[in-house]
Amino acid sequence: MHPLVSLYPSLTEMSSLSQRCIIDCFTQRQDPIQNINLYDGNCIQALHYQDQNLKVVFELPYPCQVEPPRLMTQIKDEIEQLSDVAEVLFDIQFKPPASHQQQKIPSLRHVKHVIMVASGKGGVGKSTTAVNIALALEQEGAKVGLLDADIYGPSMPILCQLVDHDIQVTPENHMKPAMQYGLAVQSIGFLVKPEQAQIWRGPMASQTLLQLIQETSWPELDYLIVDLPPGTGDIQLTLSQKLNLSGAIIVTTPQDLATADAEKGIVMFNRVHVPILGLVENMSYHRCTQCGHEEHIFGKEGGSSIAERYDVPILGYLPLHQSIRESADQGCPIVVKDVYSDLSRTYREIAQKAVAHLTKHSDITNVSIDLTEK
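The chain above was modelled as a monomer; its predicted structure follows.
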């Protein structure tokens, strides 16, 4: 008897041929997000067979409420061809990896994972990527917050259509994050006028950001996505030291100038013991809307080369596309504006792969960081 059948006795009510076929469906198919087969990945939590109906309970470390993995349709079609199975039903449950407790900052005690979105240089689409990743996770069923940590150039008021947002205060005199598109959003842009320049030295900017985090009443969150300023400066180092970070996502374009700076970001996070969840290559190509020809305007395979060099996964490739820019400028990111578009699906896959990689680093906790020159 196969171990899977022994775990779920109700399967013994069907023929041995059907049992083998069902087992093969799970052992021979891989979850495209985790890149492991469904049986070895411990994705199957329960199998219930009764009156020719098979109910499969999956437990996944990433949310997938909008569009369940496409291989589920393949499995359903194959199993329903068996003579003793009339219908296959799926119950897909989301279980985040082990929580990283934020012991140093009480306001984050209800936040399970803090994920940085970073870039080595500006202009690579980091903020647009960050907001679409956050929205994708929320749409798929996770509780998500978004922190705009770019003190000098906050983008989230525009990207989330919150330019005129007025900060609300709790009875404990803490700021409430804005709620938009299901996200809990906080930004220095809510406290200063859009045209006002923040002329601050690094330590002052870092202290202001920490104060913003500490004095925000964050709700219970599975993920807090932090949109970092570009570069590898004071704010990046301060947050790496003060927060218990679960990981970082690096955004780059294929251009040599961008990938050179992205490498510095990878080196920095490695040095401060923050796991790299993966790399996103933005503006990877442009597809002609008339003929479909793909042109690599900013070069080709730049992100892939540094991902291979530093042994970090590529989460996905995003095109240079007018609708991404237009939806961002309108304050209605593409993942919200066109949920089922190919672009939105790409953002969702990127987000799912990133949080799925947290399972590989769930036992990592921040350690003391020595930044002195050797």
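The chain has two domains: 3-94, 106-360.
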